[in-house]
Amino acid sequence: MKTRTPLIAGNWKMNKLMNEALAFAREFKPLAQEAVHVDIAVCAPFTCLAALRDEFRGTNIRLGAQNMFYERQGAFTGEISPAMLLDVGCSWVIIGHSERRELLGETDGDVARKTRLALETGLLPIVCVGETLAVREAGRAATHVRAQTEKGLAGLAPDDLRRVTVAYEPIWAIGTGRTATAADAQEICAAIRATIAGFAGPAAGDIRILYGGSVKSGNIAELLKTGDIDGALVGGASLGAAEFAEIVRLARV
Ligand code: PGA
Fold first, then answer.
1. Would you call 109 exposed, middle or buried from its count of C-beta atoms within 10 A (0-12, 13-18, 19+)?
2. 35, 98, 133, 215: least surrounded by Cβ within 10 Å?
3. Residue 169 annotated in active site
4. H-helix or E-strand containing 91?
5. Using the 8-state DSSP alphabet, how is residue 152 labeled?
6. Is the CB of 235 under 6 A from ligand 1?
7. Does residue 11's CB lie within 6 angstroms of at least one atom of ligand 1?
8. Could you say which architecture CATH assigns to the domain 7-250?
9. Which of these is catalytic: 55, 97, 99, 131?
C-alpha cells in the first residue's frame, strides 16, 4: 500500500494559444473537481500562465511551467526566472525534459542548478530522466537513469529532496504511442528510488516518481498498480480536457 498521493501532471509542450488554453480550463475544471485523491498540475506554455492562474484560482488544479533558468535575475535575454514563475502563479516546474536535453543541449549540470534554485525559490521541481532506445537496447537503461538521477539530485538536503518529483520518461516512449510495460517502468522507477536512498536514506520513500511516455486513460491504472510509480507526466493525452480528466479520475494508487 503506497502512502504517497498520486500526481498527474500535464505537459502541454509548445501547444495551445490563449483561447485554446482557456477553453481547456473551462472544460477541465468541473471534470476535475471531484478528484480529491490526486494532485493535479497543468504545465502550460509561459504565455498562457497568467490567464490560467485566474481560471484555476480556488480549484484543485495547480499550475506549472515547462522550464526555468538557473539564475535568479539579470542579463539573460529571453530566459524566465523561478521567481517570475512563482509570481505568475506556478507551483510546479518541469526541469530537464528530454526534449530540452536533446534539442537544446541541456546538461545534467544545468538540471542540478535549476533544481536547486527552484527549491530555493519555493517551486516544486519535476526532474525528468530517461534513456534513448539505443541505451535501452544496449542494456544500460538503469545505469543511465541512475547516473542522471544522481547528477541531478545528489547533495540536496533530505527536506529539499522531499519536495522533488522525479519523472522517468524513456525517450523512445515519448509521443510514439509505445508505452514501456508497467513492469519495465516499475523496474527503472525502483532503481531511481534506490539511487536516491543511496545518498538520502529514508527521504527516498517520500519522493514521488512519475512515469511519462504515451500515458493515456487506457494504461494509467496498470502503471499505478506498481510499487514505485506515483503518477504520470502526460504529454499528448493532456491536451484534451476529457481525456486528461479521465486519466486523473483513474489515478488511484
Ligand atoms: P507523451 O509525452 O505523453 O506525449 O508521450 C510525455 C512527455 O514528454 O512528457
1. exposed
2. 133
3. yes
4. strand 90-95
5. H
6. yes
7. yes
8. Alpha-Beta Barrel (3.20)
9. 97
Give yes or no for residue 96 CB within 6 A of ligand 1. Answer: no
What pLDDT is recorded for position 108?
Answer: 97
Alpha helix positions (H), the chain: 18-32, 49-56, 82-87, 98-104, 108-121, 133-137, 141-153, 158-161, 182-200, 220-224, 241-250
Q: Which of 55, 99, 106, 169 is catalytic?
A: 169
* pLDDT tens digit sequence for 194-245: 999 999 999 999 999 999 999 999 999 999 999 999 999 999 999 999 999 9
Locus of grid cell 542548478: 113
From ligand 1's centre to the CA of 236, what distance in Å? Answer: 6
Domain ranges of the chain: 7-250
